[in-house]
Amino acid sequence: MSVYSAWGFSDVPFQVTALPPSVQGSRLLIGRDTEVAQLTRRLGTGPKLATIEGPNGVGKTSLVNVAVFRAYDHYITQGTGPLLIPCSRTFQLSPGKTTSDLSTDVWYEVAQTLVKAASSLAAHKDVTERKLLARWLNSPILGTLAGSVGVSIAGFGGSLGGSKPESANTGEGFRTTGIQKLVKDWLAEIFAEPNSGGVVCVLDNLELLQTSESAREQLEVLRDEILTLPGLRWVLCGALGIVHGVASSPRLEGTLYDPIDLSGIPDSLAREVLISRVEAFGVIDSPYLPLEAEHFSELYHLMRGNLRAALSHADEYSQSIADAGAHPDTPQAKSAAFAAWLDSQTQKYNDAAASQLGPTAWGVFDQAIKVGGGFSPSSFADFGFKSIAALRPHVRDLEQAGLLVSTRDDGDRRRKTVRVTPKGWFVNRARTRNAQ
Ligand SMILES: Nc1ncnc2c1ncn2[C@@H]1O[C@H](COP(=O)(O)OP(=O)(O)OP(=O)(O)O)[C@@H](O)[C@H]1O
Ligand SMILES: [Mg+2]
């Protein structure tokens, strides 16, 4: 039994996965009203692609998921706005993956998304009053595809039109070309009017491609194949300046919207993140946690907007309390336990880094903190170096010690492609305290 169920929760309140496109995900998204509106506007106005740039763990994928879910829900309940359907999976390009592998995956997932969503919509009474939904659910393609992707749509078929699951066609050839053609036709049929919406697909973590040149090349190949087709609406997400790098490419000009720059939710909202999760996952009146909202805020502040890191460390702390068989239950006892844990983590990360790094690397680290935690290698002079090449080995040492993360990008040298990691912020805490 997980410690959280013993403490009165139905699920881990510190889950670090992106918020899903669901009622629950929507309820747990704190802040972000402006960004949700911004993204929804871009998604509703094609054919340009929406793009989001923001550091790891700030909430890019969650923002997209919830924005799309809210638009979807709005269309179903109100019948206005674009019909945006969240794709059941997010996609990634990575160095080992070809663009055609990606296309195959996309068509298959979009087929699955349309069939599964149709199956759950069939229960919705008002469905036929909504033009796009009626088109979708009444299309004969639905039955054929349901069989092909192996999804059965129980209790569904006759009432809304001619959709009856046909015999499955699951051969590999059909998986690549047959599904693609059916889905394209189907999307063109449902989303016949411009700006009526589409299945929203996310191409996530573009920074995995390391350089914006490589990302650009792949996106150009994908542009006409999957990125700008009617009925598919894409969001490109990435960190470490890669989306800005891609967006500034003349070759993709006119294809992408300017990136939405996402930074962490304000520190003042961090406590709401914890409170909303306790409410959502608590199954008894007063579920127990060994920390208070203010401690979570402190952790979030330390992680400089990286919500994933704050949640993950809050989980580590809670597990360590359970491991120790402790149960601090007054605010004072929780504060003392939390402070002791924070100090021991700080010490642990600092000791590990201290044994790996020399004074020059530490100088680079301190300067990185001084400039706010993110910098471009082209600012080498501020770090006391004569060239990017002279600075680079020290950045590499700091990366190896886990205190910085960077992406190679030779396109635009002013872009901030190096950042302090969560571990780095812990180490900074140690250095600041030692200096006092
Ligand atoms: N606005 C928010 N309110 C509450 N929780 C959030 C919010 N945004 C993100 N989260 C939570 O923070 C964590 C990180 O979110 P998410 O995965 O969306 O970040 P990301 O920017 O996509 O990260 P990565 O760069 O690693 O892909 C998840 O646990 C998610 O549930
Ligand atoms: Mg993400």
Q: Could you characterize what this model shows?
A:
With 436 residues, the chain is of the alpha/beta class. The chain has three domains: 32-261, 3-Layer(aba) Sandwich (Rossmann fold), CATH 3.40.50; 277-346, no CATH class; 359-435, Winged helix-like DNA-binding domain superfamily/Winged helix DNA-binding domain (Arc Repressor Mutant, subunit A), CATH 1.10.10.10. Helices cover 51% and strands 8% of the residues. The chain has 17 helices and nine strands. The protein has helices spanning 3-6, 23-28, 33-44, 60-78, 99-121, 131-138, 141-148, 172-190, 212-227, 242-247, 270-281, 293-302, 307-323, 331-354, 359-370, 388-400, 422-435, and strands spanning 50-53, 83-86, 91-92, 197-204, 231-238, 260-261, 374-375, 404-406, 418-420. Strands 1, 2, 3, 4, 5 and 6 form a six-stranded parallel β-sheet that branches. Strand 4 (197-204), helix 9 (212-227) and strand 5 form a beta-alpha-beta unit. The radius of gyration is 24 Å and the shape is globular. Residues 155-167 have low confidence and may be disordered. The structure holds adenosine-5'-triphosphate (ATP) and magnesium ion (MG). Residues 18, 60-61, 204, 237 line the site of magnesium ion.
Helical residue percent band? 40-55%
Q: Give the biggest sheet.
A: 6 strands, parallel
What oligomeric state is this? Answer: single chain
According to CATH, the fold-level topology of the largest domain is Rossmann fold
Average pLDDT figure: 89
Domain count, please report it. 3
Note the overall shape. Answer: globular
Cα-based radius of gyration, to the nearest Å: 24 Å
Distance between the termini: 44 Å
The total count of helices amounts to 17
CATH class of the largest domain: Alpha Beta
pLDDT below 50 for ≥5 consecutive residues: which ranges?
155-167
Hetero groups bound? adenosine-5'-triphosphate, magnesium ion
Level-2 CATH architecture of the largest domain: 3-Layer(aba) Sandwich
